[in-house]
Amino acid sequence: MSLFKRNPFGHILFLKKWLIRIMAVITHQRYKKFNKLEIEGSEIIRDLPDRNVLFVSNHQTYFADVVAMFHVFNASLSGREDNIKNIGYIWKPKLNMYYIAAAETMKKSLLTKIFAYAGSISIERTWRSEGKDVKRKVKFSDISNIGTALDDGWVITFPQGTTTPWKPLRKGTAHIIKKYKPVVVPVVIDGFRRSFDKKGLRIKKKGILQSMVIKEPLEIDYEEESFEAIIEKLEYAIEQHPSFLKVLTKKQLAELEEENKQRNWS
What we know:
The protein is of the alpha/beta class. The protein is built from 11 helices and 9 strands. The strands form 2 sheets. It has a 7-stranded mixed β-sheet with strand order 1-9-8-2-7-3-4, sandwiched between helices. Strands 5-6 form a two-stranded antiparallel ribbon. A hairpin with a 2-residue loop joins strand 5 and strand 6. 35% of the residues are buried.
């Protein structure tokens, strides 16, 4: 690989590779030692095409979720079976892997800018800005950038656009699916909100069991299914449909509410 070969967004792949390697080494113990990451379905990763794959997941922290996915996906591609043992898998990371993130978040510090270079597709949120509710038109350049990333490789998205559970999914995800017709892979995560702070940078509590379940790609009729039908299918797939709330006990709901209060204060 040429030292100055770039991806479609102009990022130097040699530099991106080393950033991913360094961040992986720094973060590995967060999922192996301080807390345990239980993985299910990693064999699905190895059967996916190299491009035009959209991972859709619930969201619990700004960064810990997606970093864990970088670990799990690369480990699986290197032959690991539902584990991230032996970090040697990161020596040859998948470089055409991206994740969608809010532009304002990715510009806040040097660290977030490094995270952005490692793979973010930064978009302007149409519903939220600097902690306030707003109403803005979708930037067509954002949609185009997501299409460019899908054409180049894999994209991870968190369609709720917030780390608060049970919030409605943004319809923009359904528009992306109908427009670019990607393979859609649901991912369900848990335990990250208990083990990390809201940003996912600081370990809040040790000894927490984190989990990541990678599900089979969804069957979607890109032409005939409505946006609403696709959104509902995604809500069920990532276990964020309102009906899932009915199976939670009063104690679990109270714990969830308390966690949200603490995260909003921090």
